[in-house]
Amino acid sequence: MSEFRIHHDVNELLSLLHVRGGDGAEVFIDLLQKNRTPYITTTVSAHSAKVKIAEYSKTPEDFLRKYDELKSKNVRNLDPLVYLLSKLSEDKEILQCLQQNAKERSEVSANATTSTTFAIPPTSTKMSMQELEELRKKLGNVTASSNVPQSAEITRKMLRDRHNKKNPTQPNPVFPNWVYDRPALNGDFITGATAAGDPAVAIGTMPLPAQEQALVDDLLFVLVGVDGRDITAQPVLGRQNRSFIVDPTLDMSIKELVNRVLPVASYYSTIARFTEEKSSFEYGQVNHALTAAMRTLMKEYLILVTQLEHLHRQGMLSLQKLWFYIQPTMRTMEILAFIASSVDKGDCMGGSTLSLLHDRTFNYTGDSQAQELCLYLTKAASVPYFEILEKWIYRGIIKDPYSEFMVEEHELQKEKIQEDYNDKYWDQRYTIVQHRIPSFLQKMADKILSTGKYLNVVRECGRDVTCPDAKEVLYTLKERAYVEQIEKSYYYASKVLLDFLMEEKELVARLRSIKHYFLMDKGDFFVHFMDLTEEELKKPVDDIVPPRLEALLELALRMSTANTDPFKDDLKVNMLEYQSVIYAILITTALSSGY
């Protein structure tokens, strides 16, 4: 956080709390800056803080539910905020102050509400019973539709429109309609189809061996997203997990084993829906790479189910054996489904997806197999992001078709630099987008931005540059590996820009030339110039001929000691619209307004 941001936040906090007098904002700002630490809140301290707040809260269930919801959406800085709140809850004086402030604010809000008057229309209008019934149905339909989560089609359209608005010349490609109109292609359950009717014989009336074989057959279907005879999938709304209905007449011992296996089918359904939805162009290259990695793992899962089916056809697969063989895969499917749900709930793309995967990989430190699985997914998903990063830090080029990269390019007119003489073009053309920064690159974000900017400045001046030490950047839990690559490219970009300015563009010589004319280092030319232009400058502004002033300026330069300056031809004459006093007033007004 920058010093200006700290000043702004402290002053805003003091204003909200109605703090007057006292030590002032500077004291608190100084304390904050002295106590800043690079260490991140650990998982243990965050968990302890969460438990402490839940104990203090009047509704702990609501707090824990909200915390889990925000955590599933990958909200940044959630754990540090919870840790801060737990510390505030320990200080009774601060709590009392906050409670008093909240009470005062609520009273002010209540007074403002009661003071507002509303014009209520007369109630003489009468409606018939039929009109009331129609109105009730319409309101019911609106309420029901508002409770349905946003469909994938609407989300895709929103993302596509946002991209096309930003890049009108490069619209997103779109899958043909038949991809979405044929649900049998996505590998998930097809619910809502016409039922085949009740079976002729209820499974509960069959012998136990026959029940077991029938359920094994059903489970093999359900594990690959197809309804069975006695096990059927329930429709899902939004981002819910898939649930199943098992024939109630089934023997309880067999039903218990079936219920142990069914979560794997639910995980499969979640993963299948996720990979199908996120494979659309609108969700970006990182999500595409993640779904491709998941599909690779799902192929191994389908091979396992195929092998189980082969055993079943040979009569060598019992329900107990099925449960035994499926258990090692259950953990993998659970992790994949959890990651899919987290990315889906958080509407993650690009850097936010990588942050979620990195945090999940880091959290599985004690579980080597789970960490290896998450590491595989993170490495695969980070490849397209790091390709964009490499182009930026090695060449100063952004190729980000789906707006996933942490650096965003804005369309600005470079030609205005010749007129406005400010750094707006270089300062605002490329900016950092916070929510697109992967958590493992947060500390290097400023250097990444500066590296590409430096190379881009040189490229804009007509010189192609490429970092000679360019190497492929790969994701690893050891951050030092790619941190070193970023630092090398940063030092190279800094050196290239500095050499370009100092040697090719002769910055020192140009500053010395500016010193000659604007600081009167060689002021004799100005005396000659004023003598030569005296008659011309006595005329009204509209009657002055600029080319004549240019010619007299060139003559004055050649008659003075500035004749040896190699940049003397760059000196031009410009007639101002206002007097110098007016310009001074305008500058003072702008400064006082905060610009």
Structural class: mainly alpha
Which consecutive residue ranges, at least 5 long each, have pLDDT under 50? 116-125, 142-149
Distance between the termini: 22 Å
Specify the overall morphology: elongated
What is the strand tally?
4
Order of helices and strands: HHHHHHHHHHEEHHHHHEHHEHHHHHHH
- Quaternary structure of the protein: single chain
Essential attributes:
24 helices, cytoskeleton, two-stranded antiparallel ribbon, cytoplasm, 595 residues, elongated, Gamma-tubulin complex component, mainly alpha, two-stranded antiparallel sheet
Structure in words:
The longest helix has 30 residues, at 284-313. The protein folds into four domains: 3-106, no CATH class; 181-192 and 205-347, no CATH class; 385-505, no CATH class; 511-592, no CATH class. It has 595 residues and is mainly alpha-helical. 22% of the residues are buried. The model is unreliable at 116-125 and 142-149 (pLDDT under 50). Helices cover 62% and strands 2% of the residues. It has helices at residues 3-16, 25-34, 43-56, 60-72, 78-90, 92-114, 129-147, 152-166, 178-181, 208-222, 252-278, 284-313, 319-345, 351-363, 368-395, 417-420, 424-428, 445-460, 480-504, 507-518, 524-532, 534-537, 546-559, 580-592; strands at 231-233, 244-246, 407-409, 430-432. The chain has a two-stranded antiparallel sheet. Strands 3-4 form a two-stranded antiparallel sheet. Helix 11 (252-278) runs antiparallel to helix 12, helix 12 (284-313) runs antiparallel to helix 13 and helix 14 packs antiparallel against helix 15. It starts with a helix and ends with a helix.
